[in-house]
Write a structure and sequence with these properties.
Elements: E1 3-9, H1 14-17, H2 34-48, E2 54-59, H3 63-76, E3 82-83, H4 106-110, H5 122-146, E4 150-155, H6 157-168, E5 183-192, E6 196-202, H7 208-215
Parallel strand pairs: 1-4, 2-3, 2-4
Antiparallel strand pairs: 1-5, 5-6
């Protein structure tokens, strides 16, 4: 199975730990905590042992993603990382920092034109992801034609789940449910032409059954 690229989630933050929406928050609770820093190092070790030649790391502008990417870069021998604004997570606006269980967002996910308060719509988020994907895949096609090198993207759960939704036809309500997230914070998935395959820190929550069924 040939990879197109690899995508990782940033490590754990205080907001992850407390079950709260992160969105575009870059505050103290949205920074990597001790466990998040440790998982970023573990991700770097895991990737360095894959036997792949990583030559490029692209990250979200959020501090938590940049820090995770910088740690991975040390293990992969990459001196610089690229920042792409399109890798910002789904902007839940005023819901950032609020407890997920107390503030369900099904209405925003079912109606992709419904705007999160002071945030964006799912359609706008998916438009950003599509634009990034088209540029990235064009670059990958050129580079892999001459040399088998790999790209690592470090972003957020919504970015990972965009690929899962796209390739499986899953509903957009997969985006922000901690039980059905494909990988945990600090996890990695391999993107191929036909599937998004979790390879490190696969979620062992309620969504595991759906992921396993999709693999078969």
């Amino acid at each position: 199975m040939r990879s197109l690229f690899f995508i990782g989630r940033h490590g754990e933050t205080g907001l992850n730990q407390s079950g709260r929406y992160r969105g575009w928050s870059n505050g103290p609770d949205a920074q990597l905590n001790e466990a998040g820093i440790q998982s970023a190092h573990e991700m770097g070790v895991f990737l360095s042992k894959l036997g792949q030649k990583f030559s490029r790391i692209i990250v979200s502008p959020m501090n938590r993603a940049q820090y995770t990417g910088a740690i991975c870069a040390q293990y992969l021998g990459i001196k610089t990382i690229e920042i792409d604004e399109r890798l910002l997570p789904l902007n839940v606006g005023d819901l950032a920092g609020l407890i997920k269980a107390e503030h369900p967002i099904g209405a925003y996910l079912k109606n992709k034109n419904k705007r999160f308060p002071n945030g964006e719509t799912v359609n706008e988020f998916e438009g950003r992801q599509h634009s990034f994907a088209m540029d990235l895949l064009a670059d990958i096609e050129k580079s892999k034609a001459s040399e088998d090198i790999e790209t690592l993207v470090i972003a957020h759960v919504s970015n990972v789940m965009y690929w899962w939704n796209l390739q499986t036809g899953a509903n957009s309500d997969e985006y922000l449910d901690e039980h059905t997230d494909l990988i945990k914070p600090g996890g990695v998935a391999m993107i191929t032409e036909h599937t998004t395959l979790p390879i490190f820190r696969e979620n062992a929550g309620e969504g595991e059954k759906n992921v396993s069924e999709e693999k078969r």
